[in-house]
Sequence to fold (213 residues):
Amino acid sequence: MRELVIGIASSLIATGLTVAAGWFGLSWPRKLLLRLLSRVSGLGVVRAYKKQSAANTALAADLRAARWIKVLAGRGNELTRDSFQEVWRQRHTRLRSVQILLPDPADPGRWLQSREEEMRRVDPGFESGLLAKQVSANIAYLSAVVAANPEVEMRLFDAPHTCRAIITDHFAYFTPYLSSAHGRNTPCFVFGNGSVMYDHLLRTFENLWSAGR
Fold:
């Protein structure tokens, strides 16, 4: 009972401090509290963003420092944008390998269709087959990248579209997809190497990579 009371009290204090820091426009107290709570829980969260799109600047910097990169994407749009351009232009002298997993546009498991149905509730422009067309366009783009970069590999997976994960030898960027929002508007969490979630995401990627075609 004593431990429960202490736990509740510490959570309330942490929440109150975080809210107060937000009122005064201070970001460092939130980051410090996040790191402390992450260390206590063992999850290993080092950064959190309200929207995936807000993480792009930090993502680009972490990609530049990476020795290897693994990407599990639900559509692959980010791979065609600024975050990855330095990687594709072969200016990255440290990089040893890039592995990319994209959905199979043929959609044998009907996972793309399932995600389309979710998106159609919040975006009426998501007509049937649109997501597969967008994935196919990104596959075509990345096929040219693969042809020009021997360290880059791409495979297709057939599994539920529940998240995006970009993993390097230092960090894992994780976006859990919500049924009520586009991925770019969904919170993004960054986990450090050696944490429970980092290891889980890396294991998930490797299992899907082994099963991919």
The chain has two domains: 1-41, 43-211. The CA atoms of residues 19 and 25 lie 10 Å apart. Helices lie at 2-23, 28-41, 56-64, 82-88, 111-120, 130-148, 196-211.
